[in-house]
Amino acid sequence: MKFVIVLACLLALAYANEEADVLKSDSEVNVEDFKYAYELSNHIKAIQSGVLKEHDNWVVSGEYEYVAPNGQLVKVVYTADETGYHPKVVEA
């Protein structure tokens, strides 16, 4: 279920700017795995994939990037599993 929280956060970030057009949107959702990617005209991009391990433990990985108000490109790479959400900001 952690992937739902991450997905909700990313979607909120993506749709915060109503002026943005969707340039790319791909998704595939199955019972035991999923993946999606999107790119918006306001320089927001995200990809995420996950797989169900054991009974209800999801292992999710992904990244997203956006341009901060100061003009700097911010990129976050993350994993999420039974131990929590593990983000890492990387130089883009």
TrEMBL record:
Keywords: Cuticle, Signal. GO terms for molecular function: structural constituent of chitin-based larval cuticle. It comes from Drosophila persimilis. GO terms for cellular component: chitin-based extracellular matrix. Residues 1-16 form the signal peptide. InterPro entries: CHIT_BIND_RR_consensus, Cuticle_Struct_Prot, Insect_cuticle. It holds the Pfam family Chitin_bind_4. It comes from the Eukaryota. The keyword Signal applies. This is GL17698. The keyword Signal applies.
